[in-house]
């Protein structure tokens, strides 16, 4: 019996074959390109093992962390009558990326220890070295993977996660810690060079206050004073620092002369915002890198105290990604040799070092906040110490 071929099906089959050939040629071309730059199949294998183990560890450990966190806070959450929508989307949807990013160096270290020890136990590293591959060459895929993780964690921690932390921190302060700060009395701050603002009372919910005055001083002389019964922050304005003063009076002093101006309403630009008045718990975690930098500069200009917490957070955003390289080097140096007792020793030493790093980081940050230690030095000190340890272990590893 003669086989009937429909033109439509033939066209689809030919199209699939052409697509498959195109994909195959692109894959071959990409593979040849990687080989030309010295990127071998073994490199892709190590990177896959590294990154897949890293992601698997995040999934497992963060799942356990969420369960423990919920069990610990279930009474407070229940008594606060928070809706499931807020619990899931405001709190845990932001809790997971925050702590995944925070403990990323720990996950990197454990991932390297686990799969490298397994490679060594299966004699795969011995086979690599027998082909003439040096330890330095073996490190290449590890460091490429560490670079991918470091760049990702930096951008997430600097720009993306702080946006979500706003909802998480607000949830914690309102439903768990129950430390909502809605108003403040007797605000005094320097808003610009020689310009000082005073507010008797400010309500953060209405973004308004009363008993406002703004003094401008040149040298030791008062140049002008602006007072108002009430002050309101314009949240709908196109630009920042927009305030509306009601029942205002402005006095300008020029020598022995005084100019007085009064009115019912005055729209003015004053270099302050409502968030400058309130220091809420973990506020530094809700700021992006540019916002942190601007806030620190602004507070220094005002002569404000207690900004070391924000400075520690600022420097930590830069220091944390470098930990991926340092702990990767330590992990590989500890795990490449095949041991008689299996991976137990390597994992034990690795866990001790990783928790030691986190403990050292926490203690040094506390010194910066409470003991007037340089925030930059306190944040980078764990990296410096562990970089020395990594270098010593690297030199002791057979090359």
Automatic annotation (TrEMBL):
The keyword Hydrolase does not apply. Its main location: membrane. This is YjgP/YjgQ family permease. It is a multi-pass membrane protein. GO terms for biological process: lipopolysaccharide transport. It comes from the Bacteria. The chain crosses the membrane at residues 45-68, 102-121, 142-161, 318-335, 347-369, 375-394. GO terms for cellular component: ATP-binding cassette (ABC) transporter complex. It comes from Alloprevotella rava F0323. Keywords: Cell membrane, Membrane, Transmembrane, Transmembrane helix. The keyword Transmembrane helix applies. The lineage of its organism: Bacteria, Pseudomonadati, Bacteroidota, Bacteroidia, Bacteroidales. It is found in: Cell membrane.
């Amino acid at each position: 019996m003669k086989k009937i071929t429909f033109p439509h099906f033939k066209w689809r089959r030919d199209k699939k074959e052409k697509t498959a050939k195109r994909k195959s040629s692109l894959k071959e071309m990409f593979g040849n390109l990687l080989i030309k730059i010295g990127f071998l199949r073994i490199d892709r294998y190590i990177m896959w093992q590294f990154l897949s183990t890293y992601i698997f560890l995040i999934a497992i450990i963060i799942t356990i962390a969420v369960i423990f966190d919920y069990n610990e806070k279930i009474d407070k959450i229940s008594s606060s009558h928070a809706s499931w929508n807020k619990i899931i989307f405001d709190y845990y949807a932001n809790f997971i990326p925050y702590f995944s990013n925070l403990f990323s160096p720990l996950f990197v270290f454990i991932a390297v220890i686990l799969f490298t020890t397994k490679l060594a136990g299966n004699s795969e590293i011995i086979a690599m070295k027998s082909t003439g591959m040096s330890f330095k060459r073996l490190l290449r895929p590890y460091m490429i993977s560490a670079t991918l993780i470091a760049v990702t964690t930096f951008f997430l921690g600097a720009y993306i996660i702080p946006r979500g932390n706003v909802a998480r921190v607000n949830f914690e302060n309102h439903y768990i810690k129950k430390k909502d700060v809605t108003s403040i009395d007797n605000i005094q701050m320097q808003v610009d060079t020689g310009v000082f603002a005073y507010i008797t009372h400010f309500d953060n919910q209405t973004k308004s206050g009363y008993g406002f005055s703004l003094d401008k001083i040149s040298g030791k002389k008062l140049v002008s004073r602006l007072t108002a019964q009430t002050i309101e922050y314009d949240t709908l304005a196109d630009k920042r620092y927009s305030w509306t003063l009601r029942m205002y009076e402005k006095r300008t002093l020029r020598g022995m002369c005084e100019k007085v101006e009064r009115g019912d309403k005055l729209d003015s630009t004053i270099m302050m915002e409502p968030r400058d008045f309130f220091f809420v718990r973990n506020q530094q975690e809700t700021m992006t890198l540019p916002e942190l930098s601007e806030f620190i500069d602004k507070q220094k200009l005002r002569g404000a105290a207690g900004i070391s917490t924000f400075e520690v957070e600022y420097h930590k955003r830069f220091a944390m990604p470098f930990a991926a390289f340092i702990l990767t080097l330590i992990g590989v140096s500890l795990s490449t040799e095949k041991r008689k007792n299996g991976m137990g020793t390597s994992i034990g030493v690795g866990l001790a070092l990783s928790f030691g790093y986190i403990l050292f980081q926490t203690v040094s940050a506390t010194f910066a906040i409470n003991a007037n230690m340089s925030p930059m030095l306190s944040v980078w000190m764990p990296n410096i110490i562990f970089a020395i340890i990594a270098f010593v272990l690297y030199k002791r590893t057979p090359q």
